[in-house]
Amino acid sequence: MTDAPTRIQVAGSAGTAPYEVLVGQQLLGELPALVGPAKRVAVLHPEALAATGEALREDLAAQGYEAIAIQVPNAEEAKTAEVAAYCWKALGQSNFTRTDVIVGVGGGATTDLAGFVAATWLRGVRWIAVPTTVLGMVDAAVGGKTGINTAEGKNLVGSFHPPAGVLCDLAALESLPVHDYVSGLAEIIKAGFIADPAILDLIEADPEAARTPQGPHTAELIERAIRVKAEVVSGDLKEAGRREILNYGHTLAHAIEKNERYEWRHGAAVAVGMVFAAELGRIAGRLDDATADRHRMVLQAVGLPVTYRGDQWPKLLDTMKVDKKTRGDRLRFIVLDGLAKPAVMEAPDPAMLLAAHAEIAA
Ligand SMILES: NC(=O)c1ccc[n+]([C@@H]2O[C@H](COP(=O)([O-])OP(=O)(O)OC[C@H]3O[C@@H](n4cnc5c(N)ncnc54)[C@H](O)[C@@H]3O)[C@@H](O)[C@H]2O)c1
Ligand SMILES: O=C(O)C(=O)C[C@@H](O)[C@H](O)[C@H](O)COP(=O)(O)O
Ligand SMILES: [Zn+2]
């Protein structure tokens, strides 16, 4: 017998339906109920999860669905217009209609792509997220931000298209390489700094344990971070305001990812980006020294990076200009006015940006 899963509600907004995020073990039995009366199901998965994708496809076929598997490249290589076009072709060739359903199984890159394909195919079909990384569970699969990258930057094309449900099967984390597991901790730590400091206390108490799925607080950390995300997106699906707090650390992070040709994991870049944002807050006199220093300590304790090459600043600054929070020529950053007090900093003085950069420059 497995315990009943935890169910976290995400409210519908802007005309979208509410849905649940389930966290537990052996959740795939929940899939048919979510798929509902569709005739066809497309299981979109990365190369690394070929066996999982095929097992899921077979399972759905055994339940009577016309099930196809669409294999896409691992990680950010999947978040391109070319791969999206490949998926559209597969859907077209299987006569995929508006009542059919896409299931995205994988990390955040895969679910971002799957959601985007679902948002654009026939102007929108239902989709279900089955995240298999820490980062996917606590952040990417929840909230309906879907998208792909372009040559100019990260996530520049996309749509708000919430899933019909999210199944976080913690058993999937057993096969995740430690580097990827730890990368996901960055978004959990982000949730700690912007909204739920108990997360930071749990990680700081035993950072080594936080690095593994066997740690005593794994489920609690994941559920706490999901609750933060669910609460925020429930009130502001389309990022008209408060949702911007989820972008803490991301302005610089996305520029680093692009600069590294997406060879850095998103979470690693977010770790550096949060230290930068904390320094910006400190330099502006908005954030106390202890909270700013706490960023470096907790991130380093779990093995995340807190510095980046110092010679890249002009390129990073240039890329930050296309960040989605930018308005005209005004760069905007999420900073902290204190622990769990996120706020927007509008058009900071370039000298302040440079000073914050000096604090993260390796
Ligand atoms: N939509 C959102 O709100 C949102 C939020 C946060 C991040 N993101 C996006 O998520 C992406 C990062 O996601 P990620 O950190 O999950 O990385 P990822 O999706 O790139 O996955 C990392 C690697 O792990 C493999 N993998 C996935 N699950 C596995 C498993 N269980 N066992 C073994 N290998 C597995 C993947 O194939 C990939 O090679 C970025 O593109 C980021 O922009 C989106
Ligand atoms: O859900 C959100 O809103 C976020 O900003 C969560 C981020 O962790 C995530 O990386 C998101 O994809 C970034 O979105 P973007 O709008 O800056 O591309
Ligand atoms: Zn992120």
UniProtKB/TrEMBL annotation:
NAD(+) binds at residues 108-112, 132-133, 145, 154. It catalyses: 7-phospho-2-dehydro-3-deoxy-D-arabino-heptonate = 3-dehydroquinate + phosphate. Coiled coil: none annotated. One of its GO terms (molecular function) is nucleotide binding. It is an enzyme of class 4 (lyase). Its cofactor is NAD(+); Co(2+); Zn(2+). It comes from the Bacteria. Keywords: Amino-acid biosynthesis, Aromatic amino acid biosynthesis, Cobalt, Cytoplasm, Lyase, Metal-binding, NAD, Nucleotide-binding, Zinc. SUPFAM superfamilies: Dehydroquinate synthase-like (SSF56796). InterPro entries: Dehydroquinate_synthase, DHQ_synth_AroB, DHQ_synth_fam, DHQS/DOIS_N, DHQS_C. GO terms for cellular component: cytoplasm. This is 3-dehydroquinate synthase. The lineage of its organism: Bacteria, Bacillati, Actinomycetota, Actinomycetes, Kitasatosporales. The gene is aroB.
